[in-house]
Amino acid sequence: MATPGSFSTIPLADVLRAANDLVSARLIEDYALGGALAAIYYVEPFTTYDADIFFIPADKGLTAGVPAIYKHLQTLGWQAQGEHLLLKGFPVQFLAAQGLTEEAVREARRIDYKGVAAKVFRAEYIVAIAASVGRLKDLARIEQMLQQADLDKTLLEKILRAHNLKLPKL
Amino acid sequence: MKLEMRRALARESFEEKIRKVEQLIRLAKTFPRSKDKTRLKKQESDLAHGIRTLD
Question: d(Cα A132, Cα A146) in Å, to the nearest integer?
Fold first, then answer.
């Protein structure tokens, strides 16, 4: 998990623009915002120090095209730091989607953020993914989503059933 | 914070919520607490262990 860095603002519009650019350059097939920032789309704001971009690789090889993605973004001024790429000091993680997360990308909600067209995981997928990961912070996220987001319970049950998942007892 | 207030915050626009996250990050930088909390907990634990050992 990223910790407080040198950034003072979250350049989310720039991050999403860059992700769109990766699609245009055919370095990735599709993407969606996931993780904490996607959860914040549906619930109260809370502290988070990075953005998770889940992408469907255009390159189906072992590396999922990550080296080409890094190279492309670095030519645009992004800096590599461990598992993150930094844009204006803000850490972004590009994660190759598969299984449930790939479905979440394909079914993601289309949004407009500061004039940038983008996609964000649907609330039901955020809950299902948290249930599949099951760390303490995921349980907290599920509770928060159940309390605050307008969930389509039928869709959630369908996703959970399809992926053999169960909501934890909270 | 009451659940109603949390729900009200949840209904704000995404842009507004991101601005609030930025404010939270700035506050966390100004008043860091997690490391201090961890350190304090360790001190408390060491102290408790010390007291138990003295018995």
Answer: 16
Going by C-beta distance under 8 Å and a sequence separation of 6 or more, which residues neighbour residue A134? A168
Distance of alpha carbon A97 from alpha carbon A53, whole angstroms: 9
Residue B32 confidence (pLDDT): 79
Set of chain B residues whose Cβ sits within 8 Å of the Cβ of A151: none
CB contact under 8 A, B22 and A10: yes
- Any residues with CB less than 8 A from the CB of A140 and at least 6 apart, and which? none
Give the ipTM: 0.91
pLDDT of residue A32: 98
Closest residue of B to A114, CA-based?
Answer: B15
Strands A84-87 and A79-81: antiparallel
Q: Does B2 touch chain A (CB under 8 A)?
A: no
Q: Which residue of A has its CA nearest to B7?
A: A148
